Amino acid sequence: MSPQSRRRFLRQSSLVLPALGLGMHRQSFADFATGETIAWKNARILTAKSAPIDQGTLVVQGASILAVGDVDAVEIPANAKVIDATGKWIMPGLVCTHSHIGGMGAADGSAPIQPGVRILDSLNVRNSGFKRALAGGLTTLNIMPGSGHLISGQTVYCKLRYAGKGPSTIDELLIRDADGAGLGGLKMANGTNSIGESPFPGSRGKSAFLVREQYIKAREYHAKVVAAKDDPDKLPPRDLHLEALVEAMQWKRIVHHHTHRHDDIITVLRLAQEFNLRVVLHHVSEGWKVAKEIAAAKVPCSVIVIDSPGGKLEARDMTFRNGRILDEAGVRVAFHTDDWITDSRVFTRSAALAVRAGMNRDRAIEGLTIAGAEMLGLENRIGSLTPGKDADFAILSGDPLSVYTRVLETWVEGQKAFDLSDPEDAIFAEGGTGAGSDLDPFLCCYAQPWQMGGKQ
Is residue 230 part of a domain? Predict the structure, then answer.
C-alpha cells in the first residue's frame, strides 16, 4: 500500500463504511458470454435459497450459473453440453467459515495480541488438506490462525481452484475485491485458550482489558492520521497491528471470534458494541444458554458439531441442540469444520447431527452454504445456486445428510476440481498411500498397481 493509499484508507470514518463484500464488483451475464456451457438435467437440486427442486436443471456458462429450475421450465442453450444427472443431487459448493488447513501459522508466543500478522504468509498451496476439502464438496474456505491468542492475525478467504494442474501459489486461491486485494477477516479468541503466563493474560477480566486497551490505541492512532491531513511530517509512524484493528472498526475486516462459554460470548458482544465490530461468533458451545441475547445483538454464529467426548472443560455443555435453539431464537447459524477437529470430507455430517437434534432441515442446508457465505460477506457471489453467481457446486450420490452419500464431483467457478471416479482424486477421499502427504512418497515400489500408483 502506497503512503497515499494508506492515508486515504485511514481517513475514512469507522462509522459509515459498508459491510465487507457489499461493494464488490459483480459480473453481469455479458461477462460470461464466452466459455463452455454445460447443463445437468433431471437432478434433485438444493438451491439453498428456495424449495428443493425434485427434477431440475442446472445450466452453467463459463464461471457463472446461467439458469436453475424445474426441468420443464429451464431452456437449455442449443450449444450446451447436456449431462443426464438422474438419481444425483446437486447443491451449492460448501462454505467452511473456520478452517485450519494449509499448514496454518500466524502469531507467536511474544505477545497475546498480534493483528498485523497474516495467515497468508504461512500457507502451503500443496498441502493435502485442500484436496481433502474438495473431496467433501467444499469450495470456499476461511482459513484462520489458531485460537491461542486474544488476536492471532488476519484470516484469508480462499476458493479451491484446483482444476487441471491446480494452483502454483496460494495467491491463486484468493478471493479478491474490486481493486484486486485479497479478502479476509481478523481472528480473535477468548476463554481458556488465550489465558496463560505473562505476557498473556491470566484471567478472563484481564483478557478483555488487553483487547479493549488495544482498540482504544487504534482509535487514537486513526485520529492522528485524520488530523495529519496528508502532511507526512505529522503522520504517526506506521503500525501494522493498529492498522488491522482500524480495518475491523471500519468493517473492512469481519471479526471471527473463537468463544465457548456463555459469559465469554457476552463479553464478545459487549466489545463488539463498544468498538463497532462486525463479528461472527465461532464454536459457541454454550450459545444455547444466551440465544436471546445473541439474537438481540443480531450477531451470527458459526457452530461446531462434534460427537466425541473430551476436549476442553469450557465446552462440556456442548449439545447437538445448539443449532436448533439458536435458529429458533432468530440467530443466523452456519457450521464449520475447524479441520482437523472435523475432517472436511465429512462436513455435511455436522448439519445432519443438528437436524437429528431438531434443527430445521432447510436451515441446516443453509448452514453449510449460504449462511456461511453471509458470514464472510460473500453472499452476493457464492453460497446458493442462483443465476449470476459463481458456478460453485457439488454433485452427490444422494441426500447430503445421509451417511451413505458420497461427493461425486466438486466444481469451482465452472471447472471440475474433484472427481471421485479419478483415482488421483479418489485417494484423497478414500485414504491410502499419499493421501496425507503433500508430495508423493519416494518409495521403490510406489509405482506398483497395489500401491495405487500404477500408470498402466
Answer: yes
Write the CA distances from 103 to 122, 127, 147, integer angstroms: 7, 7, 15
Residue ranges in 167-234 assigned as alpha helix (H): 204-228
Query: Is 110 contained in some domain?
Result: yes
Q: Does any domain span residue 52?
A: no
Burial class (CB in 10 A: 0-12, 13-18, 19+), 150: buried
- Low-confidence stretches of the chain (pLDDT beneath 50): 1-33, 441-444, 446, 450-456
Total domains present in the chain: 1
Contact 239, 263 (CB under 8 A): no
For residues 185 and 244, what is the distance between their CA atoms, to the nearest angstrom? 10
Q: What is the pLDDT of residues 206-254, one digit of tens each?
A: 999 999 999 999 999 999 999 999 899 999 999 999 999 999 999 999 9
Give the residue numbers spanning the domain of 258: 94-384
452 has which bridge partners? none
With 0-12 / 13-18 / 19 or more C-beta atoms within 10 angstroms meaning exposed / middle / buried, residue 156 is buried
> Which domain CATH number covers 279?
3.20.20.140
Counted residue by residue, the chain has a size of: 456
Neighbours of 317 (CB within 10 A): 14
Residue 77 within a domain: no
Residues 156-203 pLDDT 10s: 999 999 999 999 999 999 999 999 999 999 999 999 999 999 999 999
* pTM summary value: 0.89
Burial of 442 from C-beta contacts in 10 A (0-12 / 13-18 / 19+) = exposed
